[in-house]
Design brief:
Blueprint (H helix, E strand, L loop, with lengths): L3 H16 L12 H5 L4 H14 L4 E4 L3 E5 L5 E5 L19
Antiparallel strand pairs: 1-2, 2-3
Length: about 100
Amino acid sequence: MKYPLLSVAVVFFVMMSSLFPMGNPRADTTSGEARLNNADAVEAMAIANEWKWSRKEIKSHVTAREVVFEFPDGKVKRVALPENRMVVAVAPYIAQTHK
């Protein structure tokens, strides 16, 4: 191989590019709302849990009947829970559960 150091540099650059994509780190191939369009309740709760850490500007909560997402522009997206299932949330309790 005529330029082994160049080959190593190219491989390193490609590997690093895949770890740190350029552009907006929050830019998905689908928008938040589009990702929820075909989501069932289980998928919606998983997305809510994921976005709790990665997309903090989108607020979500679960009621007895639906998973609710509130977007920064004021739009609200609701995903219905099945009637034959319930969600139980457990919070730690020492003196109170919420501040």
